[in-house]
Amino acid sequence: MVARATASGYTASHANDPRAPHDRRPAARPSPNDAPDPVKPTLVLLVRHAVTPTTGVKLPGRAPGLHLSEEGQRQAEAVAKRIAALPGVAAVYASPLERARETALPIARAFGVAVRIERELAELDIGEWTGLSLKQAGRKPEWEQVQRHPSGFRFPDGESFSEMQTRMVSALARLVARYPGGAVVAIAGFNRFHHADGQTPLYQADSERRRDQRFSHTGIGARDEEAPI
Fold it and tell me: Structural domains in the chain?
């Protein structure tokens, strides 16, 4: 006789004992009701901050003090109305910059929650390029690489696109873990979210960027400077 451990202690098994009677009953099949409930996915809504007075003109980077324009304020209110139609948004997160927080505020107000700050949603750190006009940036020899091969570029005294992607994916993963099965809104600059799923290799990002001619006109990584979502 062999003793086997079970969840409630030990039980005797006569399977190898020739003196034991044979039980010819078929083994019990697990009930469908015994299966674990499927894990409900977390919905994360990625919202680009609305436009500012420098949108399409300058590269503000992480410079503080830049607020939404009047058009940007209208965009923020409009996107809040769209998202308010969705049930169950548990939290609204924004990068520390004013333009992201001001975009987040109407959304948070619609759900009766406070805007929470997530520092890892911050803008791409463009270092020495901060404050340059697009014309100035376009005259730099590195501009062609930024537009066509961003995965191989690091901004002087700033960060690379791969570093940005890494911290963005980590931030979103924390939100998913924090609100399992819920819905969360995250607001930052659009290029923070372009490959925030963490599944798109940066060499593919290079290819996609080459297909989008608007990059050279609207700024670093901005596909649509007019739409906040």
Answer: 43-218 (3.40.50.1240)
Instruction: Based on the residue annotation, tell me whether 71 is a catalytic residue of this protein.
Output: no
149 is catalytic: no
User: pLDDT value at position 226?
Assistant: 41
Per-residue H/E/C for 187-209:
EECHHHHCCCCCCCCHHHHHHHH
Active-site residue identified among 102, 118, 123, 194 = 123
- Sequence-separated (6 or more) residues with CB below 8 Å from residue 30: none
Residue 14 has pLDDT above 60, yes or no: no
Q: How far apart are the C-alpha atoms of 107 and 185, rounded to whole Å?
A: 8
Least confident of 70-74, 173-177, 189-193: 189-193
Task: Give me the residues paired with residue 47 across strands.
Answer: 187
Q: For the chain, what is the largest distance between any 2 Cα atoms, rounded to a whole number of angstroms?
A: 92
For residue 191, what are the contacts with CB-CB under 8 A and spacing of at least 6? 124, 164, 220, 221, 222
Per-residue pLDDT band at 151 (split at 50, 70, 90):
confident
**Could you tell me the pTM of the whole model?**
0.72
Which residue has better confidence, 218 or 134?
Answer: 134
